[in-house]
Amino acid sequence: MPTTDPSPARTGRMPRFERRVLGGSLVVAAPALLALLLLVVQPTQESTLRWTLLAGAVAITVALARWQYRRVVFPLYTLAGLLEALREGDYSLRGVQGGVLGDVVYDINALAERLQKERLEFEESAHLLGKTLAALDSAVFVFDEQHRLRLVNPAGQRLLDAERHRLFGLSAAELGLAGLLEGAPDRVALHTFPGRSGRFQVRHAALRSGGRGGWLLVVNDVGRVLREEERAAWQRLLRVLGHEVNNSLAPIQSMAGTLATLAARDPLPDDWREDFRSGLDVIGNRAGALARFLTGYGTLARLPVPQRGPLDVRELVGKVVRLPLAHPGDRQVTPEEGAPLLVEGDADQLEQALINLVRNATEAATGEVRVRWRRRGERAVIEIEDDGPGPPPSENLFIPFFTTKPGGSGIGLALARQIAEAHDGGVTLTARDDGKPGALACLWLPTRPESASL
Fold first, then answer.
1. Are residues 320 and 448 located together in one domain of the fold?
2. What is the pLDDT of residues 302-337, one digit of tens each?
3. Is 307 exposed, middle or buried (0-12, 13-18, 19+ CB in 10 A)?
4. How many domains, in total, are found in the chain?
5. What is the pTM of this model?
């Protein structure tokens, strides 16, 4: 920070206050020195004159000492007042610069400005922190080294079902939170609070502030989030289930009514057998479609835990593309050659996932379907590329039973993603990134560590 007064260390001059003290001291000593000089020069003066001269010198010296005292002490009073204001947290006072203590006053003024700025920043940060904690759905508790509560946000108050002033100073044991401060620092636990019970994610960590220890405890109600997601999933599933079931039941109900009307006619028409046969065929076909739909639902709901083992992606892809089930309609499925790549997974489940993705591509393609694999970081990526119209603009592609194809079941993509996620991987379906029409399905899995050396 630039200074208005040059520093004595830079100019080589004595500071103004030191010059004032030195000059005033010489002036105070001047009468005594002058009287002593006169006594030395004229030692034969009369005793009365000599004592008069000494008394005058003493009086003048006392007066000058008082004058010097004020000149030295009063600026120090000003300096002490500024320092006292800083000590009391009043950063608004400023000293007049340019006086005998100009350099010191300037530094104190600069310090006061800096402290005032830091206090403003601190207050703004504290206000922002308070607003942030108030907006959090997670309950936040801060305890001191004796495990007594020092800070809680509104979510924590609601969890404990108590007002803030009744909580401060209580120990973690008194609040029923002592058990949450023990064990793993990040875990999910069942717990009953005064304001709520259920499944919570609990995180705690050690703190240190002002040379003292403390504890931070964050409690998040994951049960509520899971319930909301579960409710949304059920709503989506019921919409699809209702649509598919109605698609089968409506023609069954209609045909059953038609056959009942036909059977009530007397006499029966000559072609009643053919009408009954065709009506029963419609009922049987729609009942079979409904049975297949429910079977597909059961496949998704009862997917077993994968039995993992070492798999070579190259061999897995080669086996899938040779299966007639993977390329209906005589579409050509061409695997691009790649290096061996090991993953850990269930061969049967991953084979089924790839069959679903390849079938989806061959049903959409007008020509060739290409399959390739590669290592991308710590992932083994399998890509299936087709030249069809591309994926539809919908966010429901992986929703069970959602389909845009006539006669489609809506199971393939959902089952492929479920299998991949059970292997800690994933599936995506996007438009091709080379500017050509078509879709790119990507299935990725974690690689085995030894696959890097193959």
1. yes
2. 677 888 889 999 998 888 887 765 555 567 788 888
3. exposed
4. 4
5. 0.44
